[in-house]
Amino acid sequence: MRRFNVPAFLSTLIFCFAMTVKPDAQTGVGAKPIQGAKIYLDGSKKKLHKNWTYWNGPRLSATLPVKWPIVNDPAEKGKVVSSNDPNPDAAQGKYGSADLVTKEAFRDFRLHVEFMVAKPGGNSGVYLQNRYEIQILDGDSTTHGMAAVINEKAAPYSAYNGTGHWNAYDIVFRAARFIDGKLTEKAMLTMYFNGIKVHKNQPIMQVWGGPNSGIDGGNDGGKGITDTPGGLKLQSEGHDVLYRNIWIKKLDLKTAETDF
User: Fold this and answer.
1) What count of other Cβ atoms lies within 10 Å of the Cβ of residue 106?
2) Residue 201 has pLDDT above 50, yes or no
3) How many CA atoms lie within 13 A of 202 on its CB side?
4) For residue range 84-95, what is the model confidence (pLDDT) as tens digits?
5) How high is the pLDDT of residue 63?
6) Residue 17 has pLDDT above 50, yes or no
7) 164 part of a folded domain
8) Cα–Cα–Cα angle for 213, 214, 215, nearest 5°?
9) 9 occurs within a structural domain
10) φ and ψ at 102, to 5 degrees?
């Protein structure tokens, strides 16, 4: 029987694995922007006002300039952005009244976003293409809960770091495809939550939440997806959710594959 030098064998295996991991697979809290990515939010007023605006949806009641507060990071040094817009409608939980969206629109992309739920029950959401919500909801492990592809894929709650701690979503998103205006391929994503792969090549069937939720939300009950790019949107519901370190790299994914 052939004997293996176990430590040497494991060292070789680890080295080979490391050599096969793409730089784009760097995930988790504190992940640095990959080559070609642009930083959209870093806790500074400059980035906030340069890259973001209020989403002009049917329930918008906030007014420019953007009023999301810049606050001290509760856990580390530095400044972060709070989703607690002072608009009274947002404070009452009316999503769409003071949501932020990037001024730039996207089709396919690689996204990194870090968030902290400061208090139990905190609620917000990350909207891909201003359509498809990846939920942020403390205490909920259902299809409407933390890190869920909302109403479609249940929350991978075990990967959540909990309130008062930073968390990270890393996503490769491929937009829906159309031929002659007709939908031929659903939108799709692969997602890491705090460095753990939780959704792989997950199709997204529709937009949820109605016209106040985002693009196409009021189109055929959210099933009428159109070939329109959209920005990254962050939801304001007055629930003490903080954001930092958001970067995006545009992609052009030729095939229906988002794994990374």
Assistant:
1) 20
2) yes
3) 22
4) 999 999 999 899
5) 97
6) no
7) yes
8) 145
9) no
10) -65, 145
pLDDT at 124: 97
23-26 contacts, C-beta under 8 A, 24 or more apart: 24/110, 24/172, 24/249, 24/260, 25/260
Q: Which domain holds residue 208?
A: 26-251
- Specify the CATH number for the domain of residue 109: 2.60.120.560
Name the phi and psi angles at 44, rounded to 5. Answer: -105, 150
Residue 257 lies in a domain: no
Structure tokens at 109: 């992309």
DSSP letter (8 states) at residue 31: P
3-state class of 11 per DSSP? helix
Q: Is residue 204 assigned to a domain?
A: yes
Residue type, 97: S
Q: Which two tokens stand for residue 123?
A: 């609620």
- What is the count of structural domains for the chain? 1
Looking at per-residue pLDDT, the higher value among 69 and 6 belongs to 69
**Residue-wise burial string across 156-173, b where 16 or more C-beta atoms lie within 10 A, e elsewhere:** bbebbeebeebbbbbbbb
Cβ atoms of 238 and 123 within 8 Å: the answer is no
Is the pLDDT score of 212 beyond 80? yes
Burial class (CB in 10 A: 0-12, 13-18, 19+), 53: middle
In this structure, which amino acid lies at residue 243? Answer: Y
pTM of the predicted model as reported, rounded to 2 decimal places: 0.90
**pLDDT at residue 238, rounded to an integer:** 82
Residue 161, CA distances (Å) to 28, 135, 156, 191, 219 in order: 11, 15, 11, 16, 36
Radius of gyration of the chain (CA): 19
In this prediction, residue 25 carries a pLDDT of 60
Q: What is the pLDDT averaged over residues 232-256? A: 96
Q: Say how many C-beta atoms besides its own lie within 10 A of residue 144's C-beta.
A: 15
